[in-house]
Amino acid sequence: MTATLAALDPTTLADTLRVAGSPGFDRWQDQIRRTGGCADPIHLTGWTLAKDKTTGETLHRYSTASEPGGRLRIACGNRRASRCPSCAWTYAGDTYHLIRAGLAGDDRHDIPTTVREHPRVFATFTAPSFGPVHNRPDSGCCRCGAHHAADDPALGAALDPSTYDYVGTVLFNNHAGDLWRRFANRLRREIAARAGLTQRELADRLRLSYGKVAEFQKRGAIHFHAVVRLDGPDGPDSPPPSWATTGLLADSIRAAAHHPYSSVAVPAVDDEPRRVLRWGRQLDIRPIRAFGGGSEITEQAVAAYVAKYATKAAESTGTLDRRIVELADLDRNGVPDHARRLIEACKALDPLYPERRLWAWAHMLGFRGHFSSKSRRYSTTLTTLRQVRADFRAAQEREALGLDDIEPDTVLVLADWRYAGHGHTPGESALAASIARELQLNRETAREALASLDDGGW
């Protein structure tokens, strides 16, 4: 902590000492620990009252009047690691459990472990080429003649900006969700064709399930990582027919991804020609096994990979992690040239394709879809996982208050909560970051210990 304080500027250091020396510091610190070290907590004011419905007896009373600054701080819940690493860690953990439950089963969410026996693959869908960029090939050097370091900011930037297709990149990003929907529909047709069935007959014998996450490549083009699984007609509870093999699934994915139906036509407007957007030629499909081997990858490795990218967005390419109001924002924030050109393309195209809202999504380089999504029967839901956590915390709170022996249905809860702001002062921010680092270290230590006992986990 001493080293951390020494690195602070005088203003932040003075505020840190003020917060640490305030009468309510211990309670403030407890609030921040409960948020997981949230970088931008929500502030609430208000009260809650619990009464026995039958007797009218007051069982518990709470008011923020006794809290530091008269406020209760709760986690912001932002999924972006660039905004709040602590809340993003929680989101990534939920995503890990959601994906892994669809691979290994989870009795708590009525997903049988027999799902491990279903055909499952991990597929990566890439964008096509929009022009050569600086890269780090497996052998040799970049086409520019340099050997780039892994953290070289030039990686992903166009070798020749004057010929690079920035318009094509942002249009592809903008239509990526449409491309996925068309691919998923075509995939069912490819599976049915290989089984000698109509689509209606296929629905009576097999269900297609998936969970996917989007990732921005350094060049600013989106691509998808997807877990694709074949189930019986009732979902994960039922086995798929014997002819539904991993090989059949992989072949069907290849055929569907490159089929003309899995493309999107963008009409010509003014000087912009008609374009047909398609997936890139690079398509990686690997079987998933419980323990893996060779080209196969494990369930926990896939879940961890998906969870990692669920908390990232286009800011990894150098753009901003918030809506862009004006192009001057790019100068104020030092946005690199390649990302700037993509954002400027969104601005120029916005009046030509108003229904695509390209300027509104310029900070995402045109992409407007969900970063992580799943089919209805793939697994549990993030909402369910959050509710489980909330119920657990509520049970802990009832036990701490001595109310755990009282039936919840016999308790009347009255409450009045109001939004009172968000965030930290500079000193609070430094202290919260220190708490977050401590909690993260504890979590990583616990996870390593768990991994030594079983097959890993989040």
TrEMBL record:
Higher taxonomy: Bacteria, Bacillati, Actinomycetota, Actinomycetes, Kitasatosporales
InterPro entries linked: RepSA, RepSA_streptomyces
Pfam families referenced in this protein's UniProt entry, alphabetically: RepSA (PF20199)
Listed name of the protein: Replication initiator protein RepSA
Domain of life (superkingdom): Bacteria
